[in-house]
Write a structure and sequence with these properties.
This is MD-2-related lipid-recognition domain-containing protein. With 155 residues, the protein is mainly β. 8% of the residues lie in helices and 43% in strands. The longest helix has 13 residues. The radius of gyration is 16 Å and the shape is globular.
Length: 155
């Protein structure tokens, strides 16, 4: 069976979107992960990744994030949430679509590397500063949970 034109176009678009992406530093959440492991994280654009500095993202633009994960148990559906991890508590980013199955393949197979790709729109009214961004990928029953933090500088 030959791939459709739309699937080829989607594949080419994904490659073009991440042609300049950089692997960035990340750390696991202090609350940990369950039955899930994040292997790498890429953000586009992020030329700052080479120096270890937070990725610079302009207000009113999108930052594309892509991360590779593997679960220890299969799940039919996953949700993803993104927060600003502040000293006073986690604040959700506005307008974030939490259905992870729109951004990675579902159902999720056990012990199989998968990639989630998401374009995060940064509202123009966001304050300029460095944010510790928390990504939380989980099943509804929380049996599977991948959680990590990375930094971005919004300007």
């Amino acid at each position: 069976m030959q791939p459709s034109f739309s699937s080829l176009l989607l594949a080419l678009l994904a490659v073009a979107t991440f042609a300049n992406a950089e692997r960035v530093a990340f750390e696991p959440c202090s609350s940990g992960s369950n039955q899930c492991e994040v292997n790498w994280v890429e953000i586009d654009p992020c030329p700052e990744a080479e120096t270890g500095a937070p990725c610079r993202t302009k207000k009113g633009k999108a930052a594309a994030i892509k991360f590779d994960f593997k679960t220890a148990v299969p799940k039919d559906k996953l949700d993803v949430e993104v927060f600003w991890a502040s000293a006073t508590g986690d604040l959700p980013f506005p307008g974030f679509d939490t259905d992870a199955c729109k951004y990675t393949q579902c159902p999720v197979a056990a012990d199989t590397a998968q990639t989630l790709t998401y374009s995060l729109d940064i509202p123009k009214k966001t304050a300029s500063r460095v944010y510790s961004v928390k990504w939380d990928l989980s099943s509804a029953d929380k049996e599977v949970r991948c959680c990590f933090l990375t930094k971005i500088r919004i300007y």
